[in-house]
Design brief:
Elements (H helix, E strand, L loop, with lengths): L22 E10 L2 E11 L4 E5 L6 H9 L6 E6 L2 E2 L7 E4 L12 H11 L4 H14 L15 H13 L5 E5 L7 H18 L2 E6 L2 H7 L2 E5 L7 E6 L11 H24 L22
Parallel strand pairs: 3-8, 3-9, 6-7, 7-8
Antiparallel strand pairs: 1-2, 1-4, 4-5, 9-10
Helix pairs in contact: 2-3, 2-4, 3-4
Organism: Micromonospora echinofusca
InterPro entries: AAA+_ATPase, ABC_transporter-like_ATP-bd, ABC_transporter-like_CS, ABC_transporter_ATP-bind, P-loop_NTPase
Keywords: ATP-binding, Nucleotide-binding, Transport
Length: 294
């Protein structure tokens, strides 16, 4: 690392992408007042891994991600990133939100992406090179001078990702980043993210409730139990060759396994609410997943 906190320059004068950092979540409890959202969560994520956090709506995925981001302080336990305790937000842990409102509407795409490096005092020539690199990486070079309101939903999410990557994060935390996109754009973005992840080498934690999306992207798929007091339920290693095809028999088998896993949690929530409708997590017993319809 250089003194200004950026990655060292390559022979081309551009900062080299920072290698991914390992993340360690150990015995974490997260409370909101009396409400226990997450209890006893432990998870180790290796440097450069892409891990999908999957679980029923409201179980605590975002809350756990926010603890890694440093937005939420655990009531118990510890989160470390690269061996250092997470005590608050840091540019080395970039966050991509579902809402494109995260972009500054009064800045152009280029200015949005340049914002982080500018705040860190990166000299203009290098800043421009960094911005150009990441705009090209996310396919937005031609839209650099547009404002967020002039972009489609998919383009806004690309801009968000470029803005995060311009800070050379070692960890990228993505909270249902494609959740608001139409099915086709979502599919394109999933393919793009797979490529960008390999180009940057960052560790990615990707929150989704879409089983198909998790299978397309994850090295590992980690499921959570239904809240309150949500915990890590099961850790699925997913080393199927990429790019993945959900109609491939191995993907389809994993899809069924995950649907049973998540379906059982949904059923547990419904029972707890006295709304049990016979939903038992068996294939076909829950609503079809969005990606299944493709
Ligand atoms: N700031 C907060 N104050 C109080 N309760 C909160 C707060 N943030 C989250 N919660 C509660 O914590 C639980 C977990 O919420 P969280 O947003 O992490 O779930 P999620 O799995 O990400 O859901 P979804 O998939 O629907 O986005 C929920 O019961 C939610 O109401």
């Amino acid at each position: 690392m250089t003194v200004d906190g950026t990655a060292p320059a390559t022979s081309a004068g551009l900062p080299a992408s920072r290698a991914g950092s390992p993340i360690r979540i150990r015995d974490v409890d997260i409370r909101f007042g009396e409400f226990v959202a997450v209890r006893g969560a432990s998870l180790d994520i290796a440097a450069g891994e892409l891990v999908c956090l999957l679980g029923p709506s409201g179980c605590g995925k975002s809350t756990l991600l926010n603890a890694v981001a440093g937005f939420v302080r655990p009531a118990a336990g510890e989160v470390t990133c690269g061996g250092e305790a997470v005590t608050g937000p840091d540019v080395s842990r970039g966050v991509v939100f579902q809402s494109a409102e995260a972009l500054f509407p009064w800045l152009t795409v280029r200015q949005n992406v340049a914002f982080g490096p500018q705040m860190r005092g990166v000299p203009k020539a290098r800043r421009d090179a960094v911005v150009d690199r990441y705009l090209a990486m996310v396919g937005l070079a031609h839209s650099a001078e547009r404002f967020p309101e002039q972009l489609s939903g998919g383009m806004r999410q690309r801009a968000q990702l470029a803005r995060v990557l311009a800070n050379d994060p070692s960890v990228v935390l993505m909270d249902e980043p494609f959740g608001a996109l139409d099915a086709q754009t979502r599919l394109v973005m999933q393919v793009e993210l797979d490529r960008i992840w390999r180009e940057t080498g960052a560790t990615i934690v990707f929150v989704t409730h879409d089983i198909g999306e998790a299978i397309l992207l994850g090295d590992r798929i980690v499921t959570m139990t239904a809240g309150p007091s949500a915990a890590i339920k099961k850790d699925y290693r997913c080393d199927l060759p990429r790019p993945r095809d959900l109609t491939d028999p191995a993907c389809a088998a994993l899809f069924r396994e995950l649907r049973e896993d998540i379906g059982a949690e949904v059923a547990r929530t419904l029972r707890a609410q006295g709304l049990d409708d016979g939903h038992d997590g068996r294939p076909g017993a829950d609503r079809p997943e969005r990606t299944e319809e493709r």
